[in-house]
Fold:
Amino acid sequence: MRRPIIDPNRSYSFRDYFEMNVPIDELLAYFGYTRQVQACSLPKTARDITKFAMLKEELVENIIYVDLTGESARRETLIAPILLSLARDLKMKVHIEYPLYVTDQLKGKVDYYLQRNNNLLIIEAKHDDMTRGFTQLAVEMIALDQWLNQSDKPLYGIVTMGNAWQFAILDRVTKQICQDTDLYRVPADVEELLRILIAIFED
Structure:
């Protein structure tokens, strides 16, 4: 008989799923979820975002003058400026290293957690592996789904290396995670990225 993909008697943190490097679909199936890789239907705001013009210049300068070989450098120079600009504009808080405990197999810290009204977004920052980073993000989204009150509103997530951002959407009714086929580059695609981020919290 084949052994289960994870030990049901063992405790796991979110980081452990990144380190395991297991087939993502088998892992999601263990928790009762599925994944679809496709162009996700992401919202985009139509509002004027010229107020963010200086942000792109800041990001360009950060790339020029900062050594981005470390994960912390990417967080501080490419991820944090975007999230803080978004938070100031929408008057919401950015929670960093947000602790989340659901079960012994769904626990750990989420790199970034943003909430406004009933709209939520979590972000997992990785240095060099978007694929395994997405696996960790997916497990975090499952934990969030089980932690929150029931709702038919989708949950949004992002895995990012700072210069590349990939979205995920969890349909809380069907328990399916959409892994977006597009990557948004920073700083080149920052305007389009901001339009999506703003729209997630506009409803």
